[in-house]
Write a structure and sequence with these properties.
332 residues; alpha/beta; 8-stranded parallel β-barrel; 13 helices; 47% helix; globular; CmoO-like
């Protein structure tokens, strides 16, 4: 089973933004040591407690401090940007770090309405134009515009020896079909979806159109998981993230709380129900319990790879969670 990591670069209450970004780099180093396949950085804007507004900058930092793990965006929110500029950025990264770069593409706004307007005053129009934006980006990456296209003579430099691998990220049938139509790898965000992912992934595989003969369907599933030496400890780690999510939903702008703060946070009945609903979508347990659930999900969704997102108060607890999962999967 291939395992990977999605990191949102969260800030804990006892951290500065600089420390949070440095912790993300150290997590990537640990992921490489543990044998994870890839490390992606999310893109979020104006969201309290997250420092992942510029993943392309973080990827340069992470790439320079790692040696072989694949790194990429999870995801570039393409409606905000021109495909040509995205191609230039990721071609530059692929030139610096050959054979290691993924460019994940998404369509979400990634933040508040005000942040969306500040980034792009035509966001909704660009969302409708997403299929064209994706196609244009792929042509820039692969340098295969039709000869009569207005950009046929335009190159996104530098041109790397190994092209960045494009992925489409999504949680719907619409995103799956767009990935399939363009012969792209597909990442389904189970941890943030209310949809039936197995059916969506099947639609992707059924409709996949290879861009070239060597291309075949490739799918990863992104899940939220927490692992510790004991099941009780794993639930404590997850509680910090759960309470943080509830607090942010109420407009309480602060970092990820400690386990002790999370335990003391007052919840009304509605919030308790919400917490249990969120927890039901997570994988929480000791090493063997987490492995069992990951294997079950891989079989259910028929995926090639599982990408894990874990948010804890302590960076050491997060690294330990990923270490335990990797060790369990490798030893058995």
């Amino acid at each position: 089973m291939n395992l990977s990591i999605l990191d949102q670069a969260p800030i804990s209450k006892n951290q500065s933004p600089q420390e949070a970004l440095q912790a993300s780099m150290k997590l990537a180093q640990a992921a490489e040591e543990f044998g994870y396949t890839r490390f992606w950085v999310a893109e979020h804007h104006d969201l309290p407690g997250l420092t992942s507004s510029a993943p392309e900058v973080m990827l340069g930092y992470i790439g320079a401090n790692t040696n072989k793990i694949r790194i990429g965006s999870g995801a570039v929110l393409l409606p905000h940007y021109k495909p040509y500029k995205v191609a230039e950025i990721y071609n530059t990264l692929a030139t610096l770090f050959p054979g290691r770069i993924d460019v994940g593409i998404g369509r979400a706004p990634g933040g508040s309405a005000e942040a969306t307007e500040a980034l792009n005053d035509q966001f909704l129009q660009q969302v409708w134009n997403m299929p064209t934006l994706v196609e244009e980006l792929l042509h820039f990456l692969h340098r295969d515009f039709p000869s009569d296209h207005k950009f046929s003579q335009l190159t996104a430099v530098p041109v790397p020896e190994i092209c960045p691998v494009p992925w489409l990220l999504g949680t719907s049938k619409k995103s799956a079909l767009l990935a399939a139509k363009n012969g792209m790898a597909y990442a389904f965000g189970q941890f943030m979806s209310e949809n039936e992912g197995s059916e969506i992934i099947q639609e992707y595989r059924r409709n996949f159109q290879p861009r070239s003969p060597e291309h075949s369907p490739s799918v990863l599933l992104t899940v939220s998981a927490y692992c510790a030496e004991t099941t009780k400890r794993a639930h404590e780690l997850a509680l910090s993230s759960l309470i943080w999510s509830i607090a942010r939903g109420k407009g309480e702008a602060s970092g990820v709380p400690s386990i002790e703060e999370a335990k003391d946070y007052p919840l009304n009945e509605k919030e308790k129900e919400k917490l249990e609903q969120m927890k039901s979508k997570m994988i929480i347990g000791n090493s063997s319990e987490v492995k069992k659930k990951l294997v079950q999900m891989m079989a259910l969704y028929h995926v090639d790879e599982i990408m894990i997102v874990t948010i804890t108060f302590s960076p050491q607890d997060k690294i330990q969670s990923y270490r335990l999962i990797a060790k369990e999967m490798q030893d058995n």
